[in-house]
Protein 1
Amino acid sequence: MSYPTQRFICTHCGYIYDPANGDPMNEILPGVAFEDLPEEWVCPICYVARENFDPLD
Amino acid sequence: MKPALASLYQAVDLRQEIPPLLIGERMNTNGSKRFRDRLLVDDFQGCVEIGLEQERRGAHILDLCVAYAGRDEKADMLEMVQSLRGTVKLPLLIDSTTPDVIEAALRIYPGRCMVNSINLEDGGKAIRRVCTLLKKYGASTVALTIGPKGMAMTAADKVTIARQIHDIAVGEFGLRPQDILFDALTFTIGAGDESLRDAAIQTLDGIRGIKAALPGVGCVLGLSNISFGLAPASRKVLNSVFLHEAVLAGLDAAIVDPGNILPLARIGSSERELCLDLLYNRQKDPLRTPLMLFIDHFHRLAGGEVKSAEKAEEEHRPADQALTARIVEGSKEGLEDLLAILLRRMPAVEIINRILIPAMRHVGELFGKGELLLPFVLQSAEAMKRSVALLEPHMPLVKEGHATRILLATVQGDVHDIGKNLVDIILTNNGYQVFNLGIKVPAETIIQQAIEKKVHVIGLSGLLVKSALVMKESMQQYREAGLGIPILLGGAALTKKFVATECGPAYDAPVVYCSDAFAGLQAVRDSEAGKLKGTTFDMAAPVASKPGVKTVDLDRSNPVPVPPFIGYTHVHDIPLSVLYPYVNTQALFRGRWGYRRAKLSLEDYNKLIADKVQPLYERLVRESASEGWLKPRAAYGYFRCFSRNNELIVRDENREYLFGFPRQGEAPNLCIADYFKTEAEGGDLVGFFVVTMGGEIAEKTRLLYETSQYHDYLMIHAFGVELTDALAEYWHAVMRRELGIAGKEPTETSGFVTQDYQGSRYGFGYPSCPDMEAHKPVFKLLHPEAVGLELTENMQMTPEFSTSALIAHHPQAKYFAV
């Protein structure tokens, strides 16, 4: 069992989704990999769809 | 004033947006046998042809050297300048060591040319003579780092001599530093001379040293000297890699054969590594020098089954494949010649349908796979556009009446056109007929034009949240008009879900969400094939349902800050330099510019950023400052106010202005008004600002788009928009400081993204304050007309590179969606 660590950055506003923190604003618990976010999940800062995210590291 | 040269026909900037300035070297009796042979038989027309050839191959200015033992240099020079000045559009670089010849040329040249060259070889006599002429005729000059002891070999000597020349040319004669291009001289590393093994390093260090020591001056290099003595195919590769390194070191111009420079992307990584080892004298093999490894490699290439890239491309590759390669690589080099060859074989329409369009399709596929980034796609589109323009005279007048027609528009109330224009570029260059109706287009116009132009597909774009609502609301109108054709929707505020659930059901033909221009292209193709389906959204798996009702207790006892003044003020002189720390380069590079990492490894991506993207950014930073096309200004103020339910009432002297805000329909039911105290609580304080980058950038980007310079259009437009955002971020910080609430400020960009500071700012048109009508009272409060802003009838600000905000100081105020 490995814990997801790959972070993704919003190419629209620069918000970083870090699985270690999840996304409290959208009620995503820590530990959820970016790939496993719900399809309708949007950037909590600028509300763009997930296609606009880019792998950070 | 920025340094430029001019011919009768055009001005050419000495500092190119994408360096280097390419100086064509082939009109030179010493360097080109073809030129010399023609000159020796007085074939001046043939000599001019060589100039025209270089013009077609992408040179920016042309070197002209006619000195040859036994001929009258002055007469030849006059003859050539007279023949060239009316035929070649590019400005000239008058190349002579004889002041008399230089003067004769300057006297009859009808523009602003450049002289090649001045130096200190004779201790300072000739240079003073030539500088007098430069001053008299307003010419610029190349300055060679040659002193009384000969050519400067070390970086230190190159800088020393450059400084001495600078002292004379600028100090004594008052020439402008930016009109001098110093040639740090380069010597061959290809002949195996031990003392020259670090020649490239000395040259690159010399360039850096000269630019650091003498602010404002430029650097030029006679590039091909570096590889003298090596085989021609390998020279081309080494010269190209060296040019790239020199530009990174600060080189502004290169004297080259423009057709002989390869884009770096076309050089394999192993060959590039061999070149770099040779240039930087890195001995990796204890027994064999970098030069030996380099020669071995190219020797094997030439003799073996693998042809060098050059040969394969220029001689053996059929013209159709070469044309495909030009489009995919985004190169306009030699398109005329290729198309001329192909036109002998097939009609223009065939070339478009069988070669150009499939090539663009391939570009689209590469983009879709993440293997080609947006800026390169735009270069491909430029090459496509150029090809089609060249073919147009050969096409029948009634061209393709059966082509699929697409109407594009940015919807009512929205002025953002870059997204729509990208779609236009991609569709047009894939052979579709596009009717681009522009911005702020009402639904009625869209319907009327769709019927009149008999279009097959409609594409609507909009950036604002309000635009998404406009799209949703107009669906009914489109249905009632009986259009019955697919509608494609795109824009930052849209999601798949919104299009599927809010827009699609109100219309009776497919409504399709398109995430980028190529998704739009795909949808158009699907439509032609009769298999286009409206966007659907699977609601089967709802998000983990919200646990209970969330409530937010807003503190009502927070202190009201004391503002430095009440009312408005204007700021005209904001230095650009204060904005750079606030630029969100991630959003600029990855988002606006399209340099996404996608499938690249982290290492390759970082390299792309370091080699290409960061330098581009830094150049635009420099140019925007030196050329003055970004002029940050602000109008802002602080006002007494109080909240009442969903409204904020703002007082200005004896008048009251009312701002209404939506409230969230679900918990925690936030509304911007909640962050402000009521009248009973003692009232509150609100800030507003309007900031702008001025009209120059809008004009600059408009011109780039109109002249089909798609790549530069996107880059500079996006740079301007991002700087406008940085200005808003900066001005918000200024106001926090003035209010004394700047206790805890972010130190990195990511901290600004997540609002790690006290309070919040809300832009009009965004989810929590969508009403653009609010601009009316904002303009009454701030009078931003004085900093050059105007309001359109649709409540948008012009110039486009402007933004506004309401500033809340409440510690719990943050962004939220309604």
Note: DSSP finds no helices and three strands in chain A.
Protein 2
Amino acid sequence: MDAVTYPDEKIIAFVQENFIPLQIAHDAIPLSRDFNIKWTPTLITLGIDGREHHRSVGFLNPEDFISSALLGMGKFHFDNDRYQEALSLFENLISRHPGSDYVAEAIFLRGVSLYKHSGDRLFLKEVYETLSSQHPDSEWTKRASPYRLL
Amino acid sequence: MANFIAWEKDMSKARKLARARNLPILLFFHNPG
């Protein structure tokens, strides 16, 4: 990460604009114990209250780093019931990084956000239809499978 | 524009900054060795 991803100009600008970046050694007690760190690199999106919203373990190239970070930012808002803000971030990930491994989860959470915001269950059915056609082998398609009955 | 990420090193300071700027924290556990 230090050699490839973090020196990238896009990553520097993205991180500085969207996060408070905090670097901690993997064996620094008590944080490594509190967060149950077993391997590096581990990246965690934390809320202002210290609550964990998203975690990634292992190397991320710049493209995957941004995709993972967008998902983490979206989950930060989703977990705090800010569905409009979450939607914007999930949409950003889905439209600008369509080949990312994180897209299926973003499609799932986008649909749930739309449902939570509107109360319209058709958004959940749409989640399953989109995932089953675009990501048939994803775990998120399996998680959405009950929505096909709506 | 900065040419490196200005990582904070202290959780308490990071949380104060997060509150002040209303931003999430990106917590990076690394192996400095």
Note: Helices of chain B lie at 11-21.
